[in-house]
Design a protein that fits this description.
- The complex is a heterodimer of chains A (about 120) and B (about 475).
- Chain A is built from 3 helices and no strands.
- By secondary structure, chain A is mainly alpha-helical.
- The longest helix of chain A has 18 residues.
- Chain A is flat, with a radius of gyration of 25 Å.
- Chain B is an alpha/beta fold.
- In chain B, about 40% of the residues lie in helices and about 10% in strands.
- In chain B, strand 10 and strand 11 form a beta hairpin.
- Classes of the chains: A mainly alpha (about 120), B alpha/beta (about 475).
- At the A-B interface, helix 1 and helix 2 of A face helix 10, helix 11, helix 12, helix 13 and helix 14 of B.
């Protein structure tokens, strides 16, 4: 299995990670080595072996369905990098609707460039 | 001058009024202060520990009964939650995070009147074998400061090794308790998967992770295990069986003769240090002389367990660590971004360290379309084969004996640039995590390089009682 730039980019996108050009070569090499290393498993014949999915014999350990306390809103917000009294806050990322063919550009499209990190 | 020997002796001294909890805490705080350069602690709760000690002293003096861990000074790996205390998994991505609840294990320790003295440095998200992957910098081995203490629970191991607390908790996903115990010359226990609740343990690989115990004496391990084990409404994978009386049963069966198995494939493995191999072979002879049955069992899977481990744990890690997105908690980029995906990417790439990113990438690969069956399912099948083989062995044998690590503690920086060499150092420890059984590292030997090393014993699931009993016997064996 050969690890190329396209695979690294695809995996980085899936994992929501970013590698600068300078780091890319290194992660590519590391991945190449790691994948070659785990490919050793192919030497084992596992035909007909059920994959192991659960580590315990406990099945559906459920409690009674009663309303129980959880954490308060205040403590839920406590560790957020940015929040107000009620909500987590993030930069504005919602894009204006893409105008349909022939449709005039609406005024609201100006939010696109706006940075909303107060 | 306070001196700690065992929890049992400490409690006797408390009852006799020879020492106080305050004296114990003051002693450990002085020790921590004079060994700051080891970097074992991320945070020390000095004032709080002293306050708690005073409360306990007053309570005891008033004639109230003592909890089973009354005044026992314990350090927690910076991956186990303690309400209203910082919890960061030694990662920049959790910089400043304060836990809003306590792990069940922490709760149980506190209920038995333990004193939590601080949080210990570790490899970021418990990923590493040397404690060099921490946002707080590396931890030094107190016996030789040019060497690593092992990982990922390196700080917790050094805290016990250097006498900075009585016992400590770590977590063991592939050897992260047993290997640093081996490198530091102390005892490290990884209980059965599901013996101790994982609630409040930051997840790395959920089907492998287990909270483990560091101590200098088996009795102390047993006392702590008894407290932290058992069912928990907050962990659906924890066993519903109650904790056994580990401490009470410890002195039983001390003359019992056992069936031990060992693998020639392990003892003759090219990666194993010759001196370690010889010491373990000598121990096997000694056990035979003492009328135990010790036999070699054929084990053809040794070279497959580390690859299987890395496929499965990185897959679980890539999923578990997807929660760190910089929205509800954790590190957030200072960059200006207007795209949601970019926002996540900046937060995660700036927040995670190199090894964590490596493992997330491998985990993402083995789970991705087109590769899932060939890598992930394959590794799950190999795990099944391992579980079957291990169960078969434990039908005929009580314990499996193995080295804990292929070499004694290595030099700082020695393996940092070669992830594969680093992963192979886990060859003897990951088996217990793959099959879920309990395993312990016992500090029985000393290498000519000056460093200690251990013997690893494994047994069948939920058989910690026997494992601790035989550990006591094995520790005695080394004395005589």
């Amino acid at each position: 299995m050969e690890v190329n730039d396209a695979l690294v980019d695809k995996l980085a996108q899936l994992a929501r990670l970013k590698f600068e050009a300078s780091e890319k070569e290194e992660i590519k090499n590391d991945l190449q080595k790691m994948i070659a290393f785990v490919e050793k498993l192919n030497e084992l014949d596992t035909t007909g072996v059920e994959p192991l999915l659960h580590m315990t014999d406990e099945v559906n350990v459920l409690r009674e369905d009663e309303v129980m306390g959880s954490i308060t809103r205040e403590s839920a917000l406590k560790n957020a990098p940015l929040h107000d009294e009620k909500f987590f806050k993030v930069p504005k990322v919602i894009k204006p609707p893409v105008p349909l063919k022939g449709e005039l550009k609406s005024e609201s499209s100006s939010v696109n460039s706006e940075q909303n990190l107060k | 001058m306070f001196e700690f020997f065992s929890i049992g002796q400490f409690h006797a001294q408390l009852r006799d009024g020879i020492v106080t909890c305050r004296q114990a805490v003051e002693h450990f705080l002085r020790q921590i202060d004079s060994t700051k350069h080891l970097n074992a602690f991320v945070e020390v709760y000095a004032d709080e520990a002293l306050r708690k000690a005073d409360q306990l002293d007053m309570k005891r003096n008033a004639g109230k009964p003592m909890g089973s861990l009354h005044g026992v000074v314990i350090a927690l790996k910076d991956i186990i939650a303690y309400k209203e205390h910082r919890l960061t998994a030694s990662s920049k991505i959790l910089n400043g995070f304060t836990s809003i609840y306590s792990a069940t294990a922490t709760e149980k320790l506190l209920r038995e009147e333990a004193i939590i003295i601080g949080s210990c440095n570790c490899d970021e998200f418990a990923m590493g074998s040397t404690n060099e992957n921490s946002a707080y910098g590396k931890v030094l081995n107190a016996l030789d400061e040019t060497r690593i203490p092992g990982g990922s629970s390196g700080g917790s191991a050094v805290a016990v090794q250097a006498g900075l607390c009585m016992v400590s908790l770590g977590s063991d996903t592939g050897g992260s308790v047993r290997q640093p115990a081996d490198f530091c010359g102390i005892i490290g226990l990884k209980p059965t998967y599901g013996r101790v609740s994982r609630h409040g343990l930051i997840a790395y690989a959920s089907s492998f992770d287990q909270i483990g115990i560091f101590a200098n004496r088996i009795d102390d391990v047993a006392k702590v295990l008894q407290v932290i084990s058992g069912p928990d409404a907050y962990d659906a994978t924890v066993s519903q069986s109650e904790a056994a009386n580990y401490a009470g049963k410890l002195s039983e069966n001390q003359n019992k003769k056992y069936h031990f198995a060992y693998f020639n494939e392990a003892l003759d493995h090219p990666s194993l240090d010759k001196e370690i191999a010889r010491s373990i072979k000598n121990t096997i002879e000694k056990l035979k002389e003492n009328d135990h049955a010790v036999e070699a069992v054929q084990f053809d899977y040794l070279d497959y367990i580390v690859p299987a481990y890395y496929v499965l744990t990185t897959a679980e890690a890539s999923s578990n660590l997807s929660r760190y997105d910089g929205v509800r908690y954790g590190y957030r980029t200072k960059q200006t971004v207007s795209d949601l995906t970019e926002f996540y990417k900046f937060n995660r790439s700036e927040g995670f360290g190199k090894e964590v990113k490596r493992r997330i990438m491998l985990g993402t690969f083995v789970l991705s379309t087109g590769y899932y069956d060939a890598y992930f399912t394959k590794a799950q099948q190999v795990r099944q084969l391992l579980v079957k083989k291990t169960k078969e062995i434990f039908k005929n044998y009580d314990f499996i004996l193995m080295p804990t690590s292929p070499s004694p503690a290595f030099k700082i920086g020695e393996k940092m640039n070669d992830p594969i060499a680093m992963y192979l150092a886990d060859i003897f420890t990951v088996m217990a995590n793959l099959v879920g059984c309990p395993a312990i590292s016992l500090p029985l030997f000393k290498h000519s390089a000056g460093m200690p090393f251990g013997l690893q014993a494994m047994t069948s699931e939920f058989n910690e009682v026997s494992l601790l009993q035989v550990s006591k016997q094995l520790m005695e064996l080394s004395v005589h």
